[in-house]
Amino acid sequence: MDAAVPLHDCRDAFVQTLEALAADDEQIVAVCNDSVGSSKLGRFGERWPERLINVGIAEQNMVGVGAGLANGGKIPFVCGASCFLTGRALEQIKADVAYSATNVKLCGISSGMAYGELGPTHHSIEDFAWIRVLPGITIVAPADPVETAGAVRWAATHEGAVFLRLSRVGVPDIFPPDHGFEPGKANTLREGDDLTIIANGTLTHRTIAAADMLRESGIEARVLNMATVAPIDVDAIVAAATETGAILTCEEHSVHGGLGSAVAEVVVEKHPVAMRILGVPGIFAPTGSANFLLDEFGMSPDGIAEAARTLVARKG
Amino acid sequence: MNIISLEDTARKIRLADLETVFRAGAGHIGGEMSAIDILTALYFHVLRIDPTHPDDPERDRFVLSKGHTACALYVTLAERGFIEREDLATFLQPHSALNGHPNRVKVPGVETNTGPLGHGLPVGVGMAKAAQMSATKWRVFVLCGDGELQEGSNWEAAMAAAQFGLDNLSLIIDHNRLQQGARLAETNALAPIADKFSAFGWATTEINGHDIGEIADALDANQIVEGKPRCIIAHTNKGRGISFMEDKVEWHHKVPNQEQYEQARIELGGAR
Hints:
The complex is a heterodimer.
Chain A: H1 10-24, E1 28-32, H2 42-47, E2 52-54, H3 59-71, E3 75-81, H4 82-88, H5 90-99, E4 105-109, H6 127-132, E5 137-140, H7 145-157, E6 161-165, E7 187-190, E8 195-199, H8 204-216, E9 221-225, E10 228-230, H9 234-244, E11 246-254, H10 259-270, E12 274-280, H11 290-296, H12 301-315
Parallel strand pairs in A: 1-2, 1-3, 3-4, 4-6, 5-6, 8-9, 8-11, 11-12
Antiparallel strand pairs in A: 5-10, 7-9
Helix pairs in contact in A: 1-7, 3-5, 8-12, 9-10
Chain B: H1 3-24, H2 29-46, E1 61-64, H3 70-80, H4 120-133, E2 140-145, H5 152-163, E3 169-175, H6 184-187, H7 193-199, E4 203-208, H8 212-219, E5 230-235, H9 258-267
Parallel strand pairs in B: 1-2, 2-3, 3-5, 4-5
């Protein structure tokens, strides 16, 4: 990556947007599990101490409290490290949030392998899979600060459960400041007919770089940023399959059950084409930073481009 | 408070619960009988609720954390006018709103979907916290089983409730001393429950969970201890009111046969 390109921690856009919304709507509250620092809620707590509800290190209670606050008319943003929020409190997410149809905004901070060297206990590469099977929760994994801010603004006004999958791993600006976030709609970031590469979150900018490399070698890759994993953009996937004949997916998640699986479910039913799913290959990751591990698992721009070339060759 | 009238309401609810379980061929009748006096006191004396406005933002909240006793809640909601009495005939039938565990989306008066144990108190803490933050104060009542307290999430919530000073929250423990497979004492005794909650910072009291006057008094707003959530340990009998069910582990979810049903009806004062 070009060292001159500034990188952003999307948690900053998350809390700046949340604070701006909270200033206008006193029903917005934040709930956390001793994660004030890691969720960057310090300033929120200084501005509205009574609206920052820290339940301590207790994720099951955190999610239940969020559901109760929603019952009482609040708009709770329930923030915690995604690995603990989704793993520890999954049954609360199922029963109290999804099945009870409550207006809870689950904010999985430092998702994917953001905790890198802390190891697989702290990685959250299962969360798409776990949450995706629960009816009624919209899942959004934004790719840059603008998309993060848009997703937070949308979540606050949407009546229903949302899982915002956020990262702390630096990403460059992708969208112009006036980009409007539309839930359930993929964004075409590069046009192309030879194959489609679908990504979200921290993989989107890597995928753009890969597409630019592919163009130099004569392969025109369509790039779709698919921030919303549920409900998935069926039309964009069918168009990609129909018009480009091959689909490569990239995600900071296990290859099982995540974005790639969601895309594959559409492809096999609607328009089968050659596919490849890049992600964490069904193992507990070795020691390393998130960026190191993404490269290690073949998701450097070079690795993505190479996987794309192989896939295009398979098209015949 | 007309105790005689409340006791008769509880008797009617027991009878309707028996009929509903018998007709459906399934239910959790033991724990329903143990909870019905508490439900009666709540729905017919304590809760500030309006069946014609079940979503009134200022309503008191009741959470049946022991969601497997949903039938008792449905019967109570029917008796109180939230749902039609005729709806009870659909209990557990295909596409019925009356599932084996309560669903707030389908049943007016239900606040949150329970079933897995240990969910009600955390949600109740959130409801009480919302009330604490609001200008007008509603109260929150959570009814849980005693065996249910073996779930750790309750104790997470118990700590938070005390930390937040949620004196608008009352937890009622249906202490019938039996769980699905055995007696608590043989499984995970939990004793001393009162001392545990006191140590967790709650105002704790123990009552006879079948004395409606005592239940109503314990839940009265004048019993609130400022700054402390309230734990009411209601000593009850599983299967209460039906002699052959009382205090029997197997009646957790056994269904009476025709002969047992007839006898139970007589014991509950139902017509032959």
